[in-house]
Amino acid sequence: MKKKTKSLIIRGAGYLGGVVLLFAPFALIQRALISVFGLVGRPDTHGACYKMFISRLFSATGITVLSTSSIIVFSILAVAVAFGPLFCGRLCVAGALGEFLSRLVPDRFKLNWQKYINPTPIRYGVTAVYLASPFLGLSFTCAFCNFNFMEKLILGTTIWDLGILGSTAILTAFLWIVVFGLFANGGRGFCSYLCPVGAIQSILHAIGSRLGVTGKLKLAQSKCISCKQCTKECPMGAIQIDKKIEKEIKYNIHNCIACTHCVAVCPKSAISYGRGKAWQNIKIIQASPAIEAELSN
Amino acid sequence: MNSKKGWIVSVLVTLLLFAAGVSLALAASQYPKTLTAESGVIKVDLNTGKPVQDAKPIVVDIQKQGLPKRLFQPGRISISTGKAAGISNKGTVPLNLAARVEGLPENTRLTSTDPSFDSSTGVFKKPVAAGNAVVLSIGLNLPRRQISGNFQVASGRLLLINQDTGSLLAEIPISVVNSSVKK
Q1: Does A159 contact chain B (CB < 8 Å)?
Q2: Is B18's CB within 8 Å of A166's CB?
C-alpha cells in the first residue's frame, strides 16, 4: 500500500477515534471525567469548550477550576507545546471533514487560499477576539462554532435530522464545508484562517519547537530533491514554494497541524517528525528541469 | 536597502492582515445580534398569586429570519426559554409542572435540557423548587408551502399546568407569521 494512502487511513481512524472520544452521543473523555472523577461538565462537545471553561471559571456559583472543559483544554495545550497541534492533526474530525471531502473534488475546481493570502496573521487576529469574547460578552465563540455543527451532523446521522439551525450555524457550515472545504486546496481553509483552537496550539508549538526535546517537523536538506510532493499534499498549505528571488521551500509552523502527512508522501524521507532541530527553509538547488520549468511559470 | 524595505513591507502586510482578522471577528460577532427575531423567547413567572399568569404573546416572523435561515430552513422554528431558564417558580412551595401545546402542528416537539423532563408527556418529573426556574423549548417544523402562502402561518398556545391540581398556571399565545404575505 502506498505510504500516502496508509497515512490517510491511519489519520482517518484517528479522526473517527476523535468522534468517539469528544463528540456526543459518545464523548467518552467527558463521560469518564464526570463519572470517574466527579468533575463538572457536559457529556458533549461543550464539555471540551474553552468558552465554557471561562464561563464556568467565573460563574455565579463561584470559581470552578476543575471541569471537563478545563482538563481537556489544558491537556490539548500541553500536548501542543510538547508535540505540536496533535489534536488538530490526529483527532479533530471537524477539520478532517473538510480535508477528506476536498479530496473528492478535482484540483482545477479548488482555490489555493494559503498560497495567495498568508493565513497566520488573520488566524491570530480572529483568535485574539475569540480569547477576549467571553470577557466582552461577544457571541462570536458560539455563533460560528463548527464543532457544535459537527456534533449536530454526528447526532443527525442517527435520526436523519440536523435539528433547528440558525443563520449563523448555516453560514458557518457553508464556509467550513463548501468554501474552505470542498473547493479549497487541502480542504482546511477554515482551520487555516478561522479556527482559534488550532491557532492557540500553533503559537504554543512555535514556542515549544525551540526546545530540542519537543516533537516537531524536521527537514534533511541533503535528501530533498525538490519534487514538491509535500507542498501539494499538505492539507494546511503550511509548506509552500516561494517563487520570488529566493526560490525556497518554506515551512510555516504557525499553520502546521503536525498531521505528518508530508512525512508519509516524501519519496526520499527528507521530512521527518521527532526531537531535535526544527525545519530550516531551504533553497531549491537541485530542482529537475521539469520542476524548473514549472517554477518559472 | 531592498531587503530592509522588503522586511518593512512584510511587517506592514502582516499587521494589516492581523487587523483584518480582528475586524472580521468583531463584525461577525455583531451578526447574531441582528438575528434575535429568528426564534421566540419564553419568559414567564409562575405562582405569583394570580390564578392564571399573563404572559406576553410570542410572535415569530419568518420574514425577519436571516437570509441563510430563510433559504435553508425557514420552517424549522425554535421557541425557547434560551440559555437562561425562563419559566420561574416565584412561589414559596415546589411546583410539579407540566407543559402542553395546543393548536400548533402535530409534529411540534417539546424538549428541555432538564434531565427530569419527559418529552413524551411534557412533565417535569422533578418538582421545580421555589425560586428556581426551568428550561423549555418548542420546536416547530412547518412546510414551505404553508409558509409562502399565508400571512398567519401557524398559531396556538403553550399551556403550563400544575400537575398536582390540574389547574392552568399560564397560557402563552404563540403565533408564526410571514409578513411578506399580505393579510
Answers
A1: no
A2: no
- Nearest beta carbon to residue B78 from set A130, A164, A171: A164
Q: How far is CA A197 from the centre of its chain?
A: 8
Q: What DSSP string describes B64-87?
A: GS-HHHHHH-TTEEEEE--SS--E
In whole angstroms, what is the distance from residue B117 CA to residue B136 CA?
9
Backbone φ and ψ of A232, nearest 5°: -75, -35
Count CA atoms closer than 13 A to A209's CA, side-chain side.
23
Q: Residues with Cβ < 8 Å from A294, sequence gap 6 or more?
A: none
| Vertex B51: Cα angle to B47 and B52 (nearest 5) | 85
Residue A134: list chain B partners with CB under 8 A: none
Length of chain A equals 297
- Chain A 178-217, residues with CB within 8 Å of chain B CB atoms: 193
Give B51→chain A minimum CA distance, Å.
Answer: 33
Cβ neighbours of A168 in B, within 8 Å: 31-32, 35, 66, 68
> Residues A235, A265: contact at Cβ < 8 Å?
no
Give ipTM to 2 decimals.
Answer: 0.86
Q: Is B19 on the interface with A (CB under 8 A)?
A: yes
Which residues partner with B61 through β-bridges? B177
Q: What are phi and psi of B68, to 5 degrees?
A: -60, -40
Pairing of strands B40-41, B76-80: parallel
Decide if B69 and A126 are in contact by the 8 Å CB cutoff. Answer: no
Which of B17, B68, B139 minimises the CB distance to A121? B17
Give strand ranges (E) for chain B.
40-41, 44-46, 58-61, 76-80, 87-89, 97-102, 109-111, 117-118, 123-124, 133-134, 137-141, 152-162, 168-177
For chain B, 183 residues long, give each residue's pLDDT as a single digit of tens.
Answer: 567 888 899 899 999 999 999 999 999 988 888 888 888 999 898 888 776 777 789 999 999 999 999 999 999 999 999 766 689 998 898 999 999 999 999 899 999 988 899 999 999 999 999 999 999 999 999 998 888 888 999 999 999 999 999 999 999 999 999 998 877
Best interface-test mutation with A: which of B3, B12, B13, B17 has the largest number of A CBs within 10 A?
B17
- Do A191 and A257 meet the contact criterion of CB atoms below 8 Å apart? yes
The enclosing H or E element of A274 equals strand A271-274
Q: Name the 3-class secondary structure at B50.
A: coil
Please name which of B171, B170, B110, B108 lies closest in space to residue B136, comparing C-alpha atoms.
B110
**Which chain B residues are Cβ-neighbours of A126 within 8 angstroms?**
21-22, 24-25
Residue in chain B closest to A121 (alpha carbons) equals B18
